[in-house]
Design goal:
9 helices, alpha/beta, seven-stranded mixed β-sheet, globular
Amino acid sequence: METPTVKIVVTTHKEYRMPDDPMYIPMQVGAAIEKDENGDPLDLGYLMDSTGDNISDRNALYCELTGLYWAWKHMDADYLGLVHYRRHFGSLKKINSKDPFDHVIKSDELGPMLGQYLVFVPKKRHYVIESLYSHYAHTHYVVHLYETRGIIARRCPEYLETYDHVMKHYSGHMFNMMIMERTLMNEYCSWLFMILSELDKRVNTSGLSFYQGRYCGRVGEIIFNVWLDYQVQSGRIRKDQVKELPYIYMEPVDYGRKTSSFLKAKFFHKKYEF
């Protein structure tokens, strides 16, 4: 039996070191709107999200999800995945190296797992003193979640109970990182972009900073958990067909700053502006 094929898009907006494995496909996102220092279209030499059926010009709202949209519409593989240039799925092996790229999962490790699992997700991010709802409300604008709930209630009401339940969770699979069997990815993307395209039309961004304007990408992080939980609860996917993988950062993380911003948002209602 042949090993299923897999392609994992690595989204980026600048030149960056990429994993040395053919299953990783570097993709320049926001290619329709990015300019170089001369005001000309920016070309990083990577695959672009601006050809064919695309939402590249909405990258400021959708972030890395413009790359997922392009992959969904154009890529042919048994499994499709999405990661970021600064954040990758990590190997389950113990590797003695200080180079973070040596710890990125490779195709020889992922390949044998593809037939066993249908969905690969990053280990849950735990907020401890915040639910997914309260954390978003403190750090961003809660109206985005109100609007999202309304869209789900109208367009796919069978998900509403799961949505309300997920909002109370204190952890979730975040970052819009996933690897999924192609049929499931098709179903997920159809559901996700149906919701986000309507949300895009309903939120006024005129008073939002560039950072806060990326709300479609952030809502996408949360509602991925809604979609996945519903699939498991409904029996569409068995729990043992979902595999958690570690995630690793390719650059040092300023945890002091992140902690400070987190506490200021919770106790002083200061929105994130990284």
